[in-house]
Amino acid sequence: MTAQIINGKEIAAKKRLEIAEEVEKLKSQGITPGLAVILVGNNHASQTYVKNKEKACKELGMYSLLIEMLEEVSEGELLAKIEELNEATEIHGILVQLPLPKHIDEKKVIESISPLKDVDGFHPINIGRMMTGQNAFLPCTPYGIMVLLEESDISISGKHVVVVGRSNIVGKPVGQLFLNQHATVTYCHSRTKDLKFHTNQADIIVAAVGIPNFIKAEHIKDGAVVIDVGINRNEAGKLCGDVDFDEVSEKAGYITPVPKGVGPMTITMLMYNTLKSAAESLNRK
Ligand code: NDP
């Protein structure tokens, strides 16, 4: 069997068109969705991510504000800036690019962002709301995965989903979103005994491990849906996922490639969350 490719680039482009249309509607009501991104220090990967977020905002007609702070900025100064943005009416989403320098407490920073502007969906209030099935900002990568499946007409209810990885930003929340949609969910991680035993039972596998080509054909059953979240470099320096695409795509029913799979959805859902925040701010007026 040769898997059908889930084309994240195409699905993201479609979603972005829809978002751009909604942005225009909001603008006609006097609101331009605004996203503030705080970048601390000069981590090269973070600079690239931030640049891509700014570009996406501009393309969709949103307002984008980049705040760059020096590596040695104090935690107090960063918190004061966030407080200012929490109050700023032209800003609907606040994102602090992670990781932060070691002297700054990431947890404290995330918790200082108003849950109403937490478009990354990392604030404990939004996580709690997501877990209890209430209106929330959903974390962007997990949310993007759910949209990929929905757009590919892959049903979730009653399916067995195995999530490999349990980080707070990908593994844990994506499992919760599947559970909210009535899947049976198994989490695997570095202490899991006999990973293959679990993954072989999966109708849908999400790989969020951070190890190049970690999931092999022997890990999956025929026809499984395989979602590859990984963004890694292989020994030759080439971008690759957590799934060995060449062999797994011969056995899976559906597969997301890397690049052009999950990656393009993450920023798209960030834009969606910023739009949602702006629209909700209108309702609070
Ligand atoms: P983390 O490093 O935070 O988590 C990795 C998880 O994998 C951990 O839960 C860890 O288990 C588990 N793990 C490690 N080794 C094994 C193993 N041998 N067997 C089973 N599980 C294992 O990574 P992230 O969740 O942040 O990211 C995962 C990947 O996704 C990375 O490649 C990252 O670059 C990519 N990513 C992509 C995004 C996108 O937009 N496409 C967004 C975010 C991340 P334990 O908890 O026990 O340590």
UniProtKB/TrEMBL annotation:
Gene3D superfamilies reported for this sequence: Leucine Dehydrogenase, chain A, domain 1, NAD(P)-binding Rossmann-like Domain
Species whose genome carries this gene: Bacillus salipaludis
Record-given protein name: Bifunctional protein FolD
KW Hydrolase (keyword) present: yes
The Tetrahydrofolate dehydrogenase/cyclohydrolase NAD(P)-binding domain, residue ranges: 139-280
Pathway: One-carbon metabolism; tetrahydrofolate interconversion
E.C. number(s) listed in UniProt: 1.5.1.5, 3.5.4.9
Role this protein plays: Catalyzes the oxidation of 5,10-methylenetetrahydrofolate to 5,10-methenyltetrahydrofolate and then the hydrolysis of 5,10-methenyltetrahydrofolate to 10-formyltetrahydrofolate.
Catalytic activities: (6R)-5,10-methylene-5,6,7,8-tetrahydrofolate + NADP(+) = (6R)-5,10-methenyltetrahydrofolate + NADPH; (6R)-5,10-methenyltetrahydrofolate + H2O = (6R)-10-formyltetrahydrofolate + H(+)
Residues reported to bind NADP(+): G165, R166, S167, I231
UniProt xrefs under InterPro entries: Aminoacid_DH-like_N_sf, NAD(P)-bd_dom_sf, THF_DH/CycHdrlase, THF_DH/CycHdrlase_cat_dom, THF_DH/CycHdrlase_CS, THF_DH/CycHdrlase_NAD-bd_dom
Keywords from the UniProt entry: Amino-acid biosynthesis, Histidine biosynthesis, Hydrolase, Methionine biosynthesis, Multifunctional enzyme, NADP, One-carbon metabolism, Oxidoreductase, Purine biosynthesis
Stated family: Belongs to the tetrahydrofolate dehydrogenase/cyclohydrolase family.
Summary of subunit composition and partner proteins: Homodimer.
Listed GO MF terms: methenyltetrahydrofolate cyclohydrolase activity; methylenetetrahydrofolate dehydrogenase (NADP+) activity
Superkingdom of the organism of origin: Bacteria
SUPFAM superfamilies named in the record: Aminoacid dehydrogenase-like, N-terminal domain (SSF53223), NAD(P)-binding Rossmann-fold domains (SSF51735)
Domain called Tetrahydrofolate dehydrogenase/cyclohydrolase catalytic: residue spans: 6-120
KW Membrane (keyword) present: no
